Amino acid sequence: MENFDLNILSGFRLLDVIDIFLVAIIIYYIYSLIKGTIAVNILIGVGLFYGIYLVVKQMEMRLLTEIFGGFISVGSIALIVVFQQEIRRFLIHIGKNISLRRKKFLWSFIGTKKTAQVDHGEQLKPIIDACRSMSKSRTGALLVFSRYFDEEYYQSSGEYIDAPVSKRLLESIFFKNSPLHDGAVVIVDFRIMTASSVLPISDSEDLPPQFGLRHRAAIGVTEVSEAIAVIVSEETGEISLAKDGNINMNLSPEELDKILKEEL
């Protein structure tokens, strides 16, 4: 037994430790992305399917082995199709971490963060004022702050506007009798690009039952992109902010202003 253990240790390299560590990180990221979603049930089903295939193959049940083996042979393509949203979210998460590190590195050489926040404070003022007003009047609203404008995605599902952000314009769009009040306003570089845009709905099973379409859409768009979404509840007037599939509830206009300055 001692000789066997020594043989194992002698063949264990530093690269093997690194290999195991990297695989553990990948598994952790995948789990964190699919946790609480329907993808977990799909993954369990795939694992069960593969387990049955191994059993029938071991028992030499040729017909079932051929049937299950046919599905297994195209399994990689099927997994890409089924988990395309999770794969996209995983790649966005990696890219965003790299982008944040690059920006932190650049900030150490050019300018100060405080100067940028002052400029954003002036640009955010009409947005904060509009959210404060709509919160008091309980006017439902959904604002999406995107880093870039995907014309094929946003413009195809909404009305193209391309106008500077203003308090009156936001209030007019989300006025309950306005034809554009349903859907989201997409803001890029502090310009309203589209209104009445349709967003992907989150399929997370952990969301509270009282969440309506606005909250689910806000979480959904932040799950598949780097966007930040602000929601004003029509029922309660509560202001919320969604980022990376997570949501901060019951924010005051001052708290919203502080968070947006940091994030934008």
From TrEMBL:
Protein name: Diadenylate cyclase
Quaternary data: Probably a homodimer.
Keywords recorded for this protein, A-Z: ATP-binding, Cell membrane, Membrane, Nucleotide-binding, Nucleotidyltransferase, Transferase, Transmembrane, Transmembrane helix
Gene Ontology terms for molecular function: diadenylate cyclase activity
InterPro entries: C-di-AMP_synthase, CdaA, CdaA_N, DisA, DNA_integrity_DisA_N_sf, DNA_integrity_scan_DisA_N
Domain DAC: 84-253
Annotated organism of origin: Sphingobacterium suaedae
Role according to the record: Catalyzes the condensation of 2 ATP molecules into cyclic di-AMP (c-di-AMP), a second messenger used to regulate differing processes in different bacteria.
Protein EC: 2.7.7.85
Matches recorded under Pfam families: CdaA_N, DAC
Enzyme class: transferase
